[in-house]
Amino acid sequence: MLVAAAFLVAAIAGFIPGLTAHLDQLHWLGRESQAALFGIFAVSVLHNLLHLAFGVLGLLLSSTFARARAYLVGGGLFYLGVWVYGLLIDLSGPRNILPLNNADNWLHLSIGVVMTLLGVTLAGSRIPTGSDGEPLIPPEDVPPQV
């Protein structure tokens, strides 16, 4: 849920004057969009909507451990793919439809690595725990893993 919330915040921030520089130059897509979130990350309407979709998807998939894990691993791999795409294209060329810049590439690498690692390493406990780590149900009442 926290990762999904971060995507939602980023999506909304991409439309807020003051948080996004040159908002008057925000385009639907492409490198023509000169808007920059926090004055650093190139954004367009499509880019912001992509973050919004990832946020909503994350909230929908946070209902179970397996779905949340699939969201983290799948989303992480997707963002690693966007990072590779950003490295391979000419950032000033016509294939830069999101748009992307070097700051975006580093951010997408970070997002991809963090999401993938969270999905892989946060294996979760079959025994739900409270805020201090105490078991909420006895271990013998947990159904066996398939």
Key words describing this protein structure:
3-stranded antiparallel beta sheet, 4 helices, 4% strand
User: How helical, in percent, are the residues?
Assistant: 40-55%
The average pLDDT is 89
Uncertain runs: none
What is the string of helix and strand elements? HEEEHHH
Question: Which sheet architecture does the biggest sheet show?
Answer: 3 strands, antiparallel
Measured on Cα atoms, how large is the radius of gyration?
A: 18 Å
- How are strands sequenced across the largest beta sheet? 1-2-3
User: How large is the count of helical segments?
Assistant: 4
Q: Given the C-alpha coordinates, what overall shape results?
A: elongated
Distance separating the two termini: 25 Å
Number of strands: 3
Structural class designation: mainly alpha
The percentage of residues in β strands lies in under 5%
